[in-house]
Amino acid sequence: MVTRGDARREQILYAAMVVFADHGYHRASLAGIAEQVGISQTGLLHHFPTKRHLLTAVLEARDRLDREWLAELDPDGLSGPRLLVSLLRLVDRNRRLGGLVQIYTALSGESVTDDHPARTWFTDRYERVTGSVEDGLRHGVARGTVRPDTDCAALAREVVAVMDGLQLQWLLRPERVDMVACFRDYATRLVRSVAVDPAPVEALLATAVPVPLTAGAG
């Protein structure tokens, strides 16, 4: 059951996403976020005691939504070559949720400065995400679906770098960069080089998108 407090917390998170995206972390104010929700700054601080707590909650909410969506959409699609199909679906979802992508990209760019409060979070996240991709590839090696000579650690970092790089280029020039098509082409080439039997995965990549933004939707 969703309580009034839970609903208010979600409203604050949504408003914070918008304000952080428009103004960046340092120029965003708690008073401005509270005004967007129609509450006082004191009321906001009841849910998030500091601006740093609010920023972390915004970033974690975005990641949680992605993980839950992928797991519900295809529980078996997070290992071996099929991992690339799941990532293609995530790229397509991000294309249709451009506001969230803009927030994430803007904050990740800000976080490279030493004193930024999200620097540790983004550093840890990159290790966690690349580790998950690496684990999925290693699972494929163990099951015989990924070639045993694959450098899973290096490939995981490459995949994450391609996804984030395409995302940034798409945000800057959406009329020129089709990040879904680009990632599909990249994933297809990758499958051909690392999959023991690439044909079934290539077929999935060709038809994997679009998918519902909510996994349970028809």
Automatic annotation (TrEMBL):
Q: Which InterPro entries match?
A: BetI_C (IPR039538), Homeodomain-like_sf (IPR009057), HTH_TetR (IPR001647), Tet_transcr_reg_TetR-rel_C_sf (IPR036271)
What are the transmembrane regions? none
Q: Any idea which UniProt keywords this protein has?
A: DNA-binding, Repressor, Transcription, Transcription regulation
Q: Which residues form the HTH tetR-type domain?
A: 6-66
Residue ranges of DNA binding? 29-48
Q: Which Pfam families match?
A: TetR_C_6 (PF13977), TetR_N (PF00440)
Any single GO molecular-function term of the entry would be: DNA binding
Gene3D superfamilies per record = Tetracycline Repressor, domain 2
- Superkingdom is Bacteria
Q: What is this protein called?
A: TetR family transcriptional regulator
